[in-house]
Known about the structure:
By secondary structure, the protein is α+β, with helices and mostly antiparallel strands.
Amino acid sequence: MDYxxxxxxxxAKQLRDWDLAGANYAALAGAxxxxxxxxESTITLQFNPERRRSSAALVGTRPQSRQDCFLCSEHQPxxxxxxxxxxxxxxxxxxxxxxxxxxxxxxLHHVPQQLAGRIGDMLQLAQSLPEFVVFYNGPRCGASAPxxxxxxxxxRSEMPLCGEIDHATTHLLADGDEGFIGYVDTLGRGxxxxxxxxxxxxxxxxxxxxxxxxxxxxxAEPMVNVLCWWNKTDRSWHMAFFPRCKHRPACYGEGPGRxxxxxxxxxxxxLWAVPVKEDYDRLTPELMRSLYxxxxxxRNDLNHVITGYSQRWEYVEPI
Length: 319
Ligand SMILES: [Zn+2]
């Protein structure tokens, strides 16, 4: 079912009736942007001072428990409304936007952020929101509420990667009648790309990839940022997986020589919301590349996944 109309209505009502959302979306509409070229990719930098308060407030506390969770209904402002999706998620307007339409899609229950059992939901959500890109931040690489399962979604036309991936140089790992999975390392950060004509095939490629990616320390799942979208025109599913090795760069912080940047899905997708003007002015292609290099797994780190995928595929395919 296409949720575009009902979601557009929700956004229009929230911007009218909820002052916080109204003010922040109006501020975003006037935000200054510029672009930085990185390999085959063009990164958009957005100077967005509102994110300073929200980042500090949300990421600083990173609520785990129900008592201080801003995604649990009992702690949300009465003016924040929701559209139910299935019997599992509520779709809401994100009051601290990076996109002109920015949604939070949270589980109805306070359960931990994890991808296991959710890939199918993500693909279906993408089909319900064809003008959006749905994204997932792992609990240790960008999720602002790791205690409460949630996705986000933003206007797809504003996420640079979604328009670039079709033309990117792709190293094919496995393919079949229903699509393929490949590895791309010419966009300034390494990613696995999946494109299929069926939801089932996308889920199968994704689950095998997650199975092969390393799990660090005591983590329950590989550190990943994931983007997912559905192309209504040719009815194709798309996923991009960014394996991470680190949550934040060592220079994270405020003051001389520091950068208040904590990369997650949107940054992996090529859209950086920069809350500090000095940081916004300072970012060069070289600096962007070194930030990606520091927090993303390298081609070397992923060699066993790249070679292992095709071997694994041959072995598992007959099932
Ligand atoms: Zn919660």
